[in-house]
Write a structure and sequence with these properties.
Elements lengths: L2 H16 L12 E6 L4 E5 L12 H11 L5 E7 L11 H10 L5 E5 L6 E4 H4 L4 H4 L3
Parallel strand pairs: 3-4
Antiparallel strand pairs: 1-2, 1-3, 4-5
Length: 136
Amino acid sequence: MTDTNRFEELFKKALEASENSYSPYSHFPVGAALLMEDGTVITGCNVENRSYGLTNCAERTAVFTAVARGYKTFRALAIAAPKADYPVGPCGACRQVLTEFAPQDTPVIFGPSYEKSVVKTLGELYPFDSLHELGD
């Protein structure tokens, strides 16, 4: 399977996950799909709260679900924001959490649809990741 096919399938799963979004305040559903090393895909959606600080993004929902299931390394991430007019990348908090579990060269596909999506690496989205700058 080519990267293009794999990314398209992963994006489709993120789009499906966005249908489970709980977003009564922003009306902005987001879904995320994480590809694990063994090929498993784990999804998440945004879950809002009337106290906005308690809202959880789709990306972090997917990461926390993956970790709860025993996964700690990711191969790719797709983020679908179907009501957006343009590709919306992960917020700063999500970028920070993602770098805890994924290397800088991890592909991140994001957009309102696959046809309007962009592909960047996590390192391109978060170039000065202090965790990895410190060395292993």
